[in-house]
């Protein structure tokens, strides 16, 4: 059970590291206490020298006082990442908040290499769900009524979580892919020719994208500019960027800060990714963030009943976790979160219905 937090503080051109065994559990909540409280909290953590980004870490934060930049790694998923970033910027006025999607330049970084995908494997992954549909003759009438592309999108809804958009001049081809493996976006390592090979096996999509609760990664492939822009909902501690650079020689690899920015870059409404469960998921994430701070002792207390026998007596000693910064009133954050949602929530007519409805 890993919940390690590693913090890097940069000041006066020098970097120092700190570590907490349980700090990643409440990283978002602690950051929302504001700059002064969070920096003071980091001062209570165990110093580490040299700084090493261990592979089992669950959270990473870089507080760069020189550049007034706050870098976060694996701090949220989906649209909550965009909402949380906006809330942190509110609590850290004058700071720029950025995701640490590429860890290679940080002290002690040693990301795991990503093996390049094989075109035949990627094609097979795309075809798997559709092959099962074709083998079930009960879908024949639906396919005849709605068309292959619409039915295919509906049946691939839960397995295809990589949105690929290929821009060639004024035309944009949208497609949803199955992205097998632990690294979201790894299928893109088949390179430019591989993209065309996969698209040649698939009908053109009828919907521009799925809702945020499905997507794990998205890419815009701009053929004329030779730029691949990548968005990931939960950046992995692995060298995907390096793998893409090797697979796309002569291309520039860029990263989107969040899904709304990715959509806006394509000329799509940033609210277009809101699905039927988006608001509920955002509310739940916000409630967890403002809830009771997670500590090592609290986590162990929940685990103990599952690993002890009736009648056993267990004493829990908090294993070196900090209690974090002092509590701040949550009212202002609740108001700010409500305003963020109100400014970005689409009308019911704009909401994505996913998967597409089946024609009777």
Produce the secondary structure layout.
Layout: E1 4-11, E2 14-20, H1 27-31, H2 35-42, E3 46-48, E4 57-64, E5 69-73, H3 78-91, E6 96-99, E7 112-113, H4 119-135, H5 140-146, H6 148-155, E8 162-168, E9 171-177, H7 191-199, E10 217-222, E11 227-232, E12 238-239, H8 240-247, E13 252-255, H9 259-265, H10 278-290, H11 296-307, H12 331-344
Parallel strand pairs: 1-4, 5-6, 7-12, 8-10, 11-13
Antiparallel strand pairs: 1-2, 2-3, 4-5, 8-9, 10-11
Properties at a glance:
360 residues, alpha/beta, 6-stranded mixed β-sheet, 5-stranded mixed β-sheet, 13 strands, 19% strand, globular
Task: Please explain how this structure is put together.
- This protein has helices at 27-31, 35-42, 78-91, 119-135, 140-146, 148-155, 191-199, 240-247, 259-265, 278-290, 296-307, 331-344; strands at residues 4-11, 14-20, 46-48, 57-64, 69-73, 96-99, 112-113, 162-168, 171-177, 217-222, 227-232, 238-239, 252-255.
- It has 360 residues and is of the alpha/beta class.
- The strands form 3 sheets. Strands 3-2-1-4-5-6 form a 6-stranded mixed β-sheet, with helices on one face. Strands 9-8-10-11-13 form a 5-stranded mixed β-sheet, with helices on one face.
- α5 packs across α6 (148-155).
- The longest helix has 17 residues, at 119-135.
- The N and C termini lie far apart (47 Å).
């Amino acid at each position: 059970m890993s919940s390690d937090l590693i913090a890097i503080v940069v000041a006066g051109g020098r970097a120092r590291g700190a570590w907490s065994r349980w700090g990643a559990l409440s990283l978002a909540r602690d950051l929302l206490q504001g700059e002064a409280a969070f920096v003071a909290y980091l001062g209570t953590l165990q110093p580490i020298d040299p700084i090493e980004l261990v592979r089992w870490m669950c959270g990473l934060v870089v507080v760069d006082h020189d550049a007034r930049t706050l870098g976060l790694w694996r701090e949220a998923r989906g649209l909550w990442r965009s909402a949380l970033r906006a809330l942190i910027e509110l609590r850290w006025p004058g700071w720029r908040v950025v995701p640490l999607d590429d860890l290679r330049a940080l002290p002690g970084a040693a990301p795991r290499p990503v093996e390049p995908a094989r075109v035949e494997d990627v094609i097979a992954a795309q075809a798997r769900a559709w092959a099962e549909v074709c083998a079930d003759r009960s879908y024949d009438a639906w396919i005849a009524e709605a068309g292959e592309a619409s039915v295919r999108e509906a049946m691939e809804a839960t397995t295809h979580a990589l949105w690929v958009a290929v821009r060639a001049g004024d035309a944009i081809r949208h497609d949803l892919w199955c992205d097998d493996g632990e690294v979201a976006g790894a299928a893109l390592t088949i390179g430019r020719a591989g993209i065309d090979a996969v698209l040649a096996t698939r009908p053109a999509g009828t919907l521009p994208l799925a809702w945020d609760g499905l997507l794990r990664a998205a890419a815009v492939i701009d053929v004329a500019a030779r730029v691949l822009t990548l968005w990931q909902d939960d950046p992995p501690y692995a060298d995907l960027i390096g793998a893409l650079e090797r697979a796309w020689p002569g291309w520039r690899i860029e990263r989107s800060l969040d899904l709304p920015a990715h959509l806006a870059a394509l000329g799509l409404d940033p609210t277009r990714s809101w699905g039927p469960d988006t608001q509920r998921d955002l509310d739940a994430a916000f409630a967890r963030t403002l809830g009771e701070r997670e500590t090592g002792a609290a986590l162990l207390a929940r685990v103990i009943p599952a690993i002890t026998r009736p009648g056993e007596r267990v004493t829990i000693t908090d294993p070196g976790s900090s209690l974090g910064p002092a509590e701040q009133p949550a009212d202002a954050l609740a108001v700010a979160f409500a305003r963020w949602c109100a400014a970005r929530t689409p009308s019911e007519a704009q909401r994505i219905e996913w998967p597409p409805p089946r024609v009777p």
